[in-house]
What does this fold into?
Amino acid sequence: MLKLLFRRIFLGGLTVIIVSMIIFGAVEMLPGDACTALLQQDARGETLKQCQEDLGLNRPSALRYMDWVDGAAKGDFGLTAHRNKKVSDLVGDRVKNSLLLGVCSLALGLPLAFAMGIAAALKRDRWLDLSVSSLAIVAMTIPEFVSATVLILIFSAWLGWLPGIVTASASSPLSAFFPEIILPVVVLSMVMTAHILRTVRSSMLEVLDSDYVRMATLKGVPYSRMIVRHVLPNALLPAINVVALTVAWLLGGVVVIETVFNYPGLGRLMVSAISDRDLGLVQAIALIVSCVYVTVNLSADILSLLANPRLRTSMGRKS
Amino acid sequence: MHKKRQFDMPMQTIIDIQNLTVGFTDKNGFERPVLRNIDLQIQRGETVGLVGESGSGKSTLALASMGYLKTGLRVFGGSAQFCGTDMFKLARTPLQALRGGKIALIPQNSGQSLTPTMRIGAQMSEALALHSALPQSAHVQRSLELLTRVRLPDPHAILTRYPHELSGGQQQRVAVAMALTGEPLALLLDEPTTGLDVTTQAHILELLREINEQTGTAMVYVSHDLGAIARVCERVVVLYAGEVVSDGIMRTVLRSPSHPYAHGLLASIPRLADARMPIPLDGRPPAPGEAGPACAFAPRCVLASERCQLERPPLRRLFNGEQVRCHFPEQTSSIECADSRVARVAKQSQVHPLKLDRLGVSYARPSLVDQLLGRDPNSTLTVQDVNLRIGAGETLALVGESGSGKSTILKAVAGLLAPACGSIAFADESALGAQVEQRSQSHLRKIQLIFQNPDDSLNPRHTVATILAQPLELYFKLTRAEVVERSISLLERVRLGAHYMDRLPSQMSGGEKQRVAIARAFAAEPDVILCDEVTSALDVSVQAAVLDLLDELRAERGTSYLFVSHDLAVVRALAHRVAVLYQGRLCEIGPSAAIYSQPLHPYTQVLLGAVLEPDPDHTPRLLANDVVESEPPKLGCPFQRRCPVHQGAACDRELPPWQHVDENHHIRCHIPLANLVQTLSAGKESIHA
Amino acid sequence: MKRIFEVLKEVASRPSGAIGLLLVLLHIAIAISSPWIVPYDFKAISALDILTPPDAKNLFGTDQMGRDVLTRTLLGGREAILVTAIATPIAVFWGGLLGIYLGLVGGRRDDVIMRIVDAFLSLPWILKMLLLIVTFGNGIHVLIPTLAFFYGIPVIRIARAAAHSVVARDYVLAARARGQKRLTIIRRELLPNVLDALMVEGAMRWSWMLLAFSSLSFLGFGVSPPTPDWGLMVADSRTFLPLAPWAGLFPIAFLSSLIIGINMLADALAKTLGVDRAQKAPI
It folds into this structure.
């Protein structure tokens, strides 16, 4: 099994390397570079050439890629387009904030998703199931800005229970974000819960129909014990991977929510970096995000491996 | 051969099913019964076989005695009682106490029926907690006892394993052990040996007999396999279209059945001792819920009269004790058997359409590391050193159990798997390319395949016309009209009509689909057809018709068959020559008559000894244990670990030499021929002549 | 062809299918006919009539620039529906073809391409799209290929999985053993059986694409003002939302009803065709 683990880790690392190459390559191919962003209208002729030499932009791509990777490994991504701040400082704050958002959403959404998914499957095709499933579909497919807007309207504008906009700045301590963070967390977890719920439900239904659950019933196993010992362990295994995918998705979909609520997180930073053509910043954010994605997926894979007896034991143990 | 019964046991009815009718409501709102007016009483210690084909309702009946019905089914009338309690009216808690306790199920596919995330020990302990009064601390001890009881070697290790780590036979034994935890009064066995090897099956049935003899547990054995039932049951109940059509002691039902269906069924089963082709039963059983108000068997019955088409016969007791549902049971014994034919003799020819020379095949794929370093993946070959010659118009059968490599050889001949060494050549001496992509059009045409599962071998989206057109268009230059014409004539040849052209596979039965597959194979006008367990997925009564068709076509067209099967009786009926394989190596090859009457190789003897026959006086001989080997040994004879007449160092180290019984019959063994023949005639109680 | 009619008929017979079909067709009808049925000019500003609630003159009220909300809402779906309706079939086509091919061929090519696909999927969708848009502009000629490309990638996975389940079947083996060419096998054996899964996936893709399109517009990277678009309208209405909720709620209602309609349609389609709909993340 150790071999399997190493193989997974190796592949994960490989993915990160491929991704970094894609990011670097894509940014290379875009018209303009750090100098054009810095100099703007003055970016031509001698001034441009000089700038490029200063920043080392005239060296071959491969070398610059190595430099970048080398810096990234040490946590140094260079300076922003305006040469006034270190990328790592800027990004560091934002990562912290986005993490807060993410963790709160997970804490709210995961238990809810599992509970509702399991309940819906156990009461298949009855009112509970139908309403939960329909709600899940709605939550999944309606754009986040729609749900955010509606929630702001109801809870902030009409009822006045919660603030609709985040006023704290990027470098504020985490506590400053409450209670403004509540609405964004709710919207974020809505979407996440919906996805996970549906997978859990579908997996539960499949297991409930299986031969071994039928056998457990015919063995006289009481209902509650059957669910806990025979159904859940088998049904929840596939859900691990979906949770990972959803968590990874969180990183992307969070952009809209941060914009709506004015939350100073990584998503908003990314949008403004792109608008400003701050390529160094964009590269850094992209790399960080994909590393997180790969790590989360890797953890999910490893967790699956540990939890699923079929994957754990090699076939050679058959006697 | 009857089991010893504990004569001091009171006669007591433990399962009492009275007038039970079970069914479902279809989408138009009509009630469709799956079981109709079933009356069945089972006494303590009695072993009853429930026989029927697909759609007969046998599984439903067995499970109903536990008060369990598949989703969608409900009780329309009658009752099912266990020890006086109506199982369908019982509350949940007492029902759970009985199930798995006093009445326990041994399921069909134990691999799927054991929870994958729980270790065997945990599952046994669960059963003990539910159905025995033992304290937790005594569970391990008791589990070990039970596992030993079912003859599992190394029970300590088994307790710590997960279900997927056990072989099929081991899983089945674990299922038996679990069913015994509550010291049941009745065991329900739902096709418990389907899918298991011949030797494994024989061993499990012996185990069941033992358990019945020692504990007096009643058994309800559901199966379509009359051979298995003959071994375990003293009473046989035959089900057809949801009704009991015959119920009597096993000897009577199997030797001189009074119901035409039972008669026809028995005649259609190929027998080991009988080289004759089984007699097919025309038509097919009605689908669940489809039977009409009259006798369900009338459309297929030789004795059917007008009365049978109008009036449903009641179940009545004959003078010999058998209960029969028929208007004319006395006439059954006079049903004449159609002239029993022998497999038509192939013309002895010097032409061999196919020659396999020292063929070796491996499934191992070199890993990335090996490829980079140019290393040879040093694993033993799945199939090794196979030499075969198939004559024109002859059927050569490949027999063996799982792991014998018979399907692997077929795949290699078909070009789906590249051989690791050796060659495959055609009559004209041209070598066959290793894989399909490397073969010429004419070579491809000359070798065709028929698969085991008709549900899988036909594209569900294609009509029969499209399916037949594919080989025709690929291999011949024909106009549209010619393709249609040929397709229709092919359909007629396989005894389906032109009206099948527009049908989709979902609109046909298993037997019909297999005939289409046969037509498709013959459309290419091949020299050799590779048959991979082509009748194993079919109902018994349908199987005979398909075998008959195959043989007819072979004789007519001069095509050869390379026929793979695990069913030795089927092979007896169809094959001219037989090759016996063990772990991918040839053991014995020769004319089927010789091999079946005088099996010389120790493995052939083991195999033939374990076969079950639907014959009350037949006793299988268990010569070797049923260990399933995952890999052949690196050196020496492949059978060395299980051989009952193992000779010592020679068998372990050297490959056995070929010995020639005559010019057509060869065997690989270290034991000299003379000795083998001697031991054979010495131990000859029930070798089939 | 005949099959498509039969499938549609059965879909319409289910309640979810009937409602879904109705909503989708309604929206398409509105999108096509709106330039001719709208009461006002969508650009027409009126300083006097800012943020008026719905009344006889403006059925849906006016926005912060005095523009008629009804007009803008009816027109607001045109670009979204046009772009996504074109991009979806393209995405399903190219993703499906590649996925089926990979499912059939397996081996090294499969491994390598799936690695690259995985790497791609690890980048947030919005990043990828924004990069392209910001570089090449946000006209239809950029949006359609961009959406078609990025949303085709998950289709590869689905098609590949569907192909895998078919490729192991005996009838595909039979075709191979006969010596049928690979392309013929894909066309005759795989495609008809994979098509069902692709159709359902296509419907779902459309709804994800609408989501992406409207989100992009919301952020200011999609449609350019003054062209009316639902996403843009919601973004514009944010500042004054408590005062004039109608400016945001009507476009929200229209967008949501279209998306829900597509989903109900996809659901009914999946049930009719017997396809399993366990959903993963959209990208």
Observations:
- The interface with chain B takes residues 210-223, 225, 229-230, 233-234, 237, 308-310, 313, 317-319 of chain A (CB under 8 Å).
- The CA atoms of residues 79 and 86 of chain A lie 4 Å apart.
